[in-house]
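Here is the promised in-class demo. Please do not try to memorize the tokens; focus on the logic of going from shape to residues.
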């Protein structure tokens, strides 16, 4: 039996099942992303903390290094 949009009831149930599966997958992804990581500092966190301390200790050198790297990247990219 066809519905108003030209699909069968079986197609409609299959579509609903796929939509429910998609919603559950999105919920799982959101839960996985939104959970807080363990209190253990990761390597990236340790590196970021050390970089922050170095930049605070030597701000002029950090700005000069950033400008120099930016200039080099632009020169290479324009070739």
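The designed amino acids, position by position:
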């Amino acid at each position: 039996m066809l519905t108003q949009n030209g699909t069968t009831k079986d197609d409609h149930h299959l579509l609903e099942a796929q939509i429910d599966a998609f919603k559950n997958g999105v919920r799982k992804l959101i839960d996985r992303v939104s959970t807080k990581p363990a209190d253990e500092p990761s390597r990236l966190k340790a590196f970021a903390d050390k970089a922050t301390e170095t930049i605070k200790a030597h701000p002029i050198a950090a700005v000069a290094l950033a400008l120099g790297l930016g200039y080099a990247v632009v020169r290479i990219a324009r070739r």
